[in-house]
Amino acid sequence: MSPGIGMPELLVVLVLALVVVGPQQLPVMMRKVGQMMAQARAMAKDFQNSFEEIGRETEMSELRREIEALKQANPINQIHGELDKTARSVQDDDIRALKLKHVAADQAAADAAKAAKLAALEAGAADDTGGTPDEWADTPDDAPDRTSAATASPAPADTIKGR
Q1: What is the DSSP letter of 23?
Q2: How many Cβ atoms from other residues are within 10 Å of residue 145's Cβ?
Q3: What is the pLDDT of residues 122-161, one digit of tens each?
Q4: How many angstroms separate the CA atoms of 107 and 138, rounded?
Q5: DSSP assignment, residue 55?
């Protein structure tokens, strides 16, 4: 049940060819049949080679993609990236801490200056003189005028109201 041609079938084909073609043309015809078989085998081999080549190219392209994926997923590169991120965040944290220290120092200096002014004002109020002229120069412009009660002259109500 194999599809191949056995010896009995080959003998039948040869006898038929001998009868149809004749004994003189039989060697020429067999040579042509052999050449056609060789061409058919060469075409089949080329066809098979082209499929194998396509398969190799496909396999190579898949391997190239896998290699590129491995290169991109290189754990060393990932570790370098994570280390760089961590270093940047540590630097940012250090900068924030320094800024907070400076802000706290500035706030402490401002609080100390306010406490000193308040102490000077309280000391001046205790003297009932309103402080010294040096202390008045340190006060802001919107602070009330510090003149002693003895030197201040009360303004008449008419001049204040503009009459």
Answers
A1: T
A2: 8
A3: 888 776 555 555 555 555 555 555 554 444 455 555 556 5
A4: 18
A5: H
With CA atoms as reference, report the closest residue to 118 among 135, 101, 142: 135
With beta carbons less than 8 A apart as the criterion, state whether 124 and 135 touch. Answer: yes
What is the separation of C-alpha 134 from the centre of its chain, rounded to a whole number of angstroms? 61
Angle at alpha carbon of residue 5, lines to 32 and 26, rounded to 5°: 30
Instruction: At 142, list the tokens.
Output: 């919107």
Spatial distance between the Cα atoms of 158 and 38, rounded to a whole number of angstroms:
135
Element (H, E) at 36: helix 26-72
Of the candidates 71, 93, 90, 94, the residue with the CA atom closest to the CA atom of residue 82: 90
Do 138 and 117 meet the contact criterion of CB atoms below 8 Å apart?
A: yes
CB-CB contact of 128 with 147 (8 Å): no
Q: Is a pLDDT exceeding 50 seen at residue 106?
A: yes
Q: Do 148 and 128 meet the contact criterion of CB atoms below 8 Å apart?
A: yes
Spacing of C-alpha 68 from chain mean position: 18
Query: Nearest Cα to 17, choosing from 35, 31, 4?
Result: 31
